[in-house]
Amino acid sequence: MPQEFNFNPHEPNIEILINQAGYFGIARTEATIQAEKLLKIMELWDRRFDIAQSLSGGMKRRLMLARALMHKPEILILDEPTAGVDVEIRQSMWAYLKQLNKEGVTIILTTHYLEEAEQLCRNIAIMDEGSIIENTNMRDLLAELDSQTFIFDSTVSINSAPELQLENVSVRKIDENSLEVTVSHGKNINEVFSALDGHGVNISSMRNKTNRLEQLFISRLNENGDK
Fold it and tell me: What is the pTM of this model?
């Protein structure tokens, strides 16, 4: 699935898929069944007889993915598959790609959405100026984080950032109901919860301040630039 749209914009969407299957020797009857299945998965079934030119950018992206799957490939290569796709459809595409992977399809993904890479990929390669500077297992790479920064939301007002008597933990007040907490790698986050609770801070939710992979990506680029 290339990044650029390279289908006939004046051809009906379902014909784009059926004709693609023909390049792999798939009979039209079988191709029609596969096209219907994929168009429904990509939520394009009601646009099957419309010409591709009439689709939005996100719809065209989904049509490209459907076309790439017409011959049921064992290896699927995706170049920026969710660029220009809205959040809801992106989530459904992720779910479908995960299902394909579980069914045995090997997926090679190129993306600038690091959240996407972290959620979808077991192995990752990071490139800088055309050279691979990291090629490893995702879990092993994330384990190299020196620290993580979280945003904690409190159900009660916070007058000032509490001084926690914990090593390798720093706390900064963002507003009346939010704290920024940086925790060094290996620190038990439950200790932080207990310490905050002791200061009367009742945490209702927490989230990473930045994507973990994004932190590592920037650090690797900086390290590579210093060489």
Answer: 0.72
Domains of the chain: 13-110 (3.40.50.300), 147-213 (3.30.70.1560)
Give 46-60 pLDDT, tens digit per residue: 999 999 999 998 899
* 145-149 contact pairs (CB < 8 A, 24+): 145/185, 145/212, 145/215, 145/216, 146/184, 146/185, 147/182, 147/183, 147/184, 147/185, 148/182, 148/183, 148/185, 148/208, 148/212, 148/215, 149/180, 149/181, 149/182, 149/183, 149/208, 149/209, 149/210
Tokens 């691979």 correspond to 132
**Ranges of H-type helices in the chain:** 13-22, 28-41, 57-68, 87-102, 114-120, 138-142, 189-198, 212-226
Give the other-Cβ count within 10 Å of 4's Cβ: 7
